[in-house]
Design a protein that fits this description.
InterPro entries: PRTase-like, PRTase_dom. The protein is an alpha/beta fold and 229 residues long. It contains 7 helices and 8 strands. The strands form 2 sheets. The protein has a 5-stranded parallel sheet, sandwiched between helices. A 3-stranded antiparallel sheet has the order 3-4-5. Helix 1 crosses helix 2. It starts with 9 loop residues before the first helix and ends in a 15-residue tail after the last helix.
Length: 229
């Protein structure tokens, strides 16, 4: 039996997610999208909450021969942080050399994206604020987990994870990782994030750049002296 999509596109999912997050009333929020797919969702949340929009630059490391199976994830920062899924590591027998090589490759891609998306523009700091991590959906949670740990290391007072759709088992696991977890749907059986959308096209870098430009004025009325994009 074919399941009907839950959302027309990421923008609609973002507007519905924004309603749920607004009801939480997060204190002094800053929005972190997981690019590229999370950017249109996060844009709608940032607009509704009048909060700065930033990106959590995280890259998944796939298992040897199984690139879609999340072995680890690495997140950008002054000291880049990596989260390893030890059960997948044991199952696949991934070596330290393999992980180190993939970490270096993904850090290079993170640096490319950082230069492309931000250049010399200052980033939003999560220190002392409510950091809201947003993606277009959750599968294993590897990249979200890395982003969450990275934001905590940067001093976020509270970390909230918000996604339109996730499998029940991943949702249950992530609830234990954050101060609050918002998910609009937890279908079972869960087959893919894309199944929840009519339009789930692959985003290009220019679309992310356009969203960041359009969001530049969001959150500019917050407390004086805080960092901003």
């Amino acid at each position: 039996m074919t399941r009907q999509p839950l959302f027309q596109d990421r923008a609609e999912a973002g507007r519905r997610l924004a309603d749920a997050l607004a009801a939480l009333g997060p204190d002094d929020p800053v929005i972190y999208a997981l690019p590229r797919g999370g950017a249109p969702v996060a844009f709608e949340v940032a607009r509704r909450l009048d909060a700065p929009l930033d990106l959590a630059l995280v890259r998944k490391i796939g298992a040897p021969g199984q690139p879609e199976l999340a072995l680890a994830a690495v997140v950008d920062g002054d000291e880049p942080h990596m989260v390893v899924n030890e059960s997948v590591r044991r199952l696949t027998g991934a070596s330290d050399a393999y992980i180190d090589a993939e970490r270096a490759r993904e850090l290079a891609e993170i640096e490319r994206r950082r230069q492309l998306y931000f250049g010399a523009r200052p980033r939003s700091s999560p220190r002392g604020r409510s950091a809201i991590v947003i993606d277009d959906g959750l599968a294993t949670g590897a990249t979200a987990r890395a982003a969450i740990e990275g934001l905590r290391r940067q001093g976020a007072a509270k970390v909230i994870l918000a996604v339109p759709v996730a499998p029940p088992e991943a949702a249950a696991a992530m609830r234990r990782e954050v101060d609050a977890f918002v998910c609009l749907a937890e279908p079972s059986p869960f087959r893919s994030v894309g199944e929840a959308y009519v339009d789930f096209h692959q985003l290009e870098d220019q679309e992310v750049l356009d969203l960041l430009a359009d969001a530049a004025a969001f959150g500019t009325g917050r407390k004086a002296g805080q960092d901003g994009p």
